[in-house]
Amino acid sequence: MRIGLINVDSKLPNLALLKLAAWHKQQGHEVEIYTPIEAAIDPFDMVYASKVFANTPDCPYLPEDAILGGTGYNYSVLPDEIEHICPDYSLYDMQYSLGFSSRGCIRKCPFCIVPAKEGGIKEHSSLSEFVRHKEVRLLDNNFLASPLWRDKLHEMIDRKLKVDFNQWLDIRLITDENAELLTRLNPPYLRFAWDFVELEGQVRKGLETLKKAGFPIGKRRVNMYLLTNYNTTPQQDLYRIETLKAMNVLPYVMVYEKHKAHRLMRELQNWANQPHILFKYTWSEYRAARKLPAIGGDVI
Fold first, then answer.
1. Which domains does the chain have, with CATH numbers?
2. Is the model's pTM score more than 0.85?
């Protein structure tokens, strides 16, 4: 049996397709990643298509009987025998491991699909289930909310893993203990989010706790995601960016419904998300050079 796997809207390795490939190969099936056009020209016995984002275009070339999955299509889940199989990393010639150790989140952020899709925090799989490389990209939505975060961090340290907490850590859950363990683990960088302006005190406290534990905050090894164009003003967005810049923390601006955003918001994102520009020029200098307009009567 020939199995075709189609990654509809992402160039990155798709975890569900990696698991499907591993399972079908165990059944003795031939598995290939194909573009939709290739699949239409060269039909397979079975085609899976995965789409990550709901707002990206669908593919007009999918076979009518293609099995659709991923958040871009639905909230379906893989059967347990496929979900808990080690991904087939050879599919993309990957030199790192990818997976979830926990699913869900304790937060209920109104802009996030995780509460509806996965619910509250729960354990999902052991590291041994999917880790086959020293480099690991962990997809947990709120790793530090997992009841087993302590055991997992110790295991990562003992195994000398190079871990990218790819979906960010919750700055509000940073404590002296986990800050010390994260410093011992010494990931290349840490990602957090500061989505609500009123969380400034907790953001500062978390960063100070990491600094006290010895993590090199001042060496631009901390990324802070900032949601804009949602429930903040441009002035508040600029304040968050400049606050982080002063601490040598790298802001990463995400514009909510970017297609509806004023040009100035997109330019603010361009300035903030390029460290070589952000740390060389002030916003006023950048804005003057780009001859940018005001948003309504407000000038930032």
1. 1-83 (3.40.50)
2. yes
Could you tell me the CA-to-CA distances from 81 to 32, 242, 254, 270 in Å, in that order?
20, 48, 36, 44
Identify any residues that bridge with 68 across adjacent strands, giving them in sequence order: 49
The tens-digit pLDDT sequence of the chain (300 residues) is 999 999 998 888 999 999 999 999 999 999 998 876 665 566 789 999 999 988 888 888 888 889 999 999 998 899 999 999 999 999 999 999 999 999 999 999 999 999 889 999 999 999 999 999 999 999 999 999 999 999 999 999 999 999 999 999 999 999 999 999 999 999 999 999 999 999 999 999 999 999 999 999 988 999 999 999 999 999 999 999 999 999 999 999 999 998 888 888 899 999 999 999 999 999 999 999 998 876 555 557
- Do residues 146 and 123 lie in contact, with contact meaning Cβ atoms separated by under 8 Å? yes
Q: Are strands 135-138 and 2-7 parallel, antiparallel or unpaired?
A: unpaired
